[in-house]
Write a structure and sequence with these properties.
By secondary structure, this protein is an alpha/beta fold. The relative contact order is 0.13. The protein is globular and about 60 Å long. The chain is built from eleven helices and nine strands. The protein folds into two domains: 174 residues, HUPs (Rossmann fold), CATH 3.40.50; 90 residues, 2-Layer Sandwich (Pantoate--beta-alanine Ligase, Chain: A,domain 2). Strand 8 and strand 9 form a beta hairpin. The strands form two sheets. It has a six-stranded parallel beta sheet with strand order 1-4-3-2-5-6, sandwiched between helices. Strands 7-8-9 form a three-stranded antiparallel beta sheet, covered by helices on one side. The chain binds pantoate. The site of pantoate has 10 residues, from strand 2 and helix 7. Keywords: ATP-binding, Cytoplasm, Ligase, Nucleotide-binding, Pantothenate biosynthesis. Its EC number is 6.3.2.1. GO terms for molecular function: ATP binding; pantoate-beta-alanine ligase activity. Homodimer. Its main location: cytoplasm.
Amino acid sequence: MEVLKSKKILQDFIERQKEMGKKIGFAPTMGALHDGHLSLYKNAKEENDLVISSIFVNPTQFNNPEDLEKYPRDINRDISILEKSGLVDAVYIPEVTDIYPEKTESQHYNFDGLEDEMEGKSRPGHFDGVGTVVEELFRQVKPDNAYFGEKDFQQLAIIRKMVEKKKLPVKIKGVPIYRAENGLALSSRNQRLDTDRREASKVIYETLKKVNEWFRVITIPEIKQRVQDIFDNQRGMQLEYFLIADEETLKETDFFYKDRNFRAFIVVVVDGVRLIDNMHLD
Ligand code: PAF
């Protein structure tokens, strides 16, 4: 596996691959790699000649400086996971100046209102930061296909919107949420939970499965009340939000409509760690 440590080295590498007509699959990450990332690479490997990943903890998408500081970083561990997986041909590890040559700040985007829902409300500026880094990475890596997990479903929708609006020549592929055996959606943040708390957090997935059973049987306000009751009885867990939204507009709804797809979204804070999950409702 090639380790590409600057924009210049990446550009030379990409140029050679393009000359050989290689189809590039790309999965950007912020490191702290886990099996969820490996599932992105597996999808990428099946559909491309070459798989590239990036590791870059993007400062502009953290609205909370403490969260940025606490974000787990272990580049040698990550490189060894990538090597062992045998799924990735090259990893790009840029310096901050490779992404932000002047000021480390975001561009401002209009994602047609997608940015104002859910995470946009609780994390102002977050999606401008994500858009900025992903657009820049796409311009440098020039992938044919790019892979993102459905765990961050709103991020995935926003990246699709950015690609459409900016007419970027890349196909965006959503990859289903990768779950631990107990159902907890894999996330780099899970590393900050001890084993007991990780086990207790399976209640998030169990709740989403119940919501899927209740969907179209009882009203959405009733579902919300039941979810609130579940988390009121969980020690050390706070339900930050639970809602059901239209999958396309991401607008919250209290009513079902025919011919629309709906998804349940949840954020729970467990011992100060913010866990996010979602589920398509059948
Ligand atoms: O999902 C992530 O890990 C990040 O938001 C991304 C897409 C790598 C951009 O920094």
